[in-house]
Design goal:
Radius of gyration: 16 Å
CATH class: Alpha Beta
Bound molecules: S-adenosylmethionine
Number of helices: 9
Shape: globular
Strand order of the largest sheet: 3-2-1-4-5-7-6
CATH architecture: 3-Layer(aba) Sandwich
Number of domains: 1
Distance between the termini: 32 Å
CATH topology: Rossmann fold
Strand content: 15-25%
Structural class: alpha/beta
Length: about 210
């Protein structure tokens, strides 16, 4: 699937998912806090939340004093984000992660929650390069997303999720994400697996 096809696919997919996403937001509510704890203090930081969806992670950062810009490719998802926004320090904008409409080195922290696995490899790589571009020197690029566990209960959860998720989920978990990060010039400085190894949080820096 090339980028043009991906944009159509993503727009159509999240048009269907958006009205039901509140249930996923409910299930993932604990992850928002866990990811905030992982990123550390964000008070007064300028954050860009890429693929922000219905904005729940952006709200969690805003609650902790950050100035947040959330971007997404799906207007349907953003509609819910805007509708639920009670924060003055959060704004949302329609944008593709592969072409972020911001100047170089604008943000202290650039984040992405549960969207790496929704992208094709090429879109993911291009988005990572853009996230790096718009992040300040000495800033960070951080992710929370799925992870493929090797043993235990996590394997069962992973298999269950694979049945519910799109084929891109399995593809993402079968790619070497460390290699992708290296290719983009992002250096992993922290990595934490959670929820029986089915999810991971990654913090990156770059030179
Ligand atoms: C599973 S949702 C996650 C939303 C949100 N970050 C969260 O944690 O709930 C994936 C989101 O990624 C967005 N997305 C996928 N590819 C994108 C891209 N290239 N640029 C911007 N948003 C993208 C989709 O439109 C969708 O809203």
């Amino acid at each position: 699937m090339d980028e043009k096809e991906f944009v159509i696919y993503n727009t159509e997919l999240f048009k269907k998912i958006a009205p039901r996403y509140k249930w996923l937001d409910f299930i993932a509510s604990r992850c928002r806090i866990t990811f905030c704890k992982f990123t550390g203090s964000v008070n007064s930081l300028k954050i860009l939340d890429v693929a922000t969806g219905t904005g729940k992670q952006a709200f969690a950062f805003a609650k902790r004093g950050a100035e947040v810009m959330g971007v997404d490719l799906s207007e349907d998802m953003l509609q819910f984000a805007r509708q639920n926004n009670s924060f003055k320090n959060v704004d949302f904008r329609l944008a593709n992660g592969t072409k972020l409409p911001f100047e170089d080195k604008k943000f202290d922290l650039t984040t992405m929650s549960f969207a790496l696995h929704c992208m094709t490899e090429k879109v993911r790589e291009d988005t990572l390069a853009e996230m790096k571009r718009v992040t300040k020197d000495k800033g960070r690029v951080s992710f929370i997303d799925y992870h493929k566990p090797k043993k235990g209960l996590g394997v069962l959860i992973y298999k269950g999720l694979a049945k519910l998720e799109t084929p891109l989920y399995k593809k993402f978990l079968d790619t070497d994400f460390d290699e992708t990060l290296q290719k983009t010039g992002l250096r992993k400085v922290r990595h934490k697996k959670i929820f029986f190894g089915t999810m991971q949080m990654i913090s990156c820096e770059f030179d």
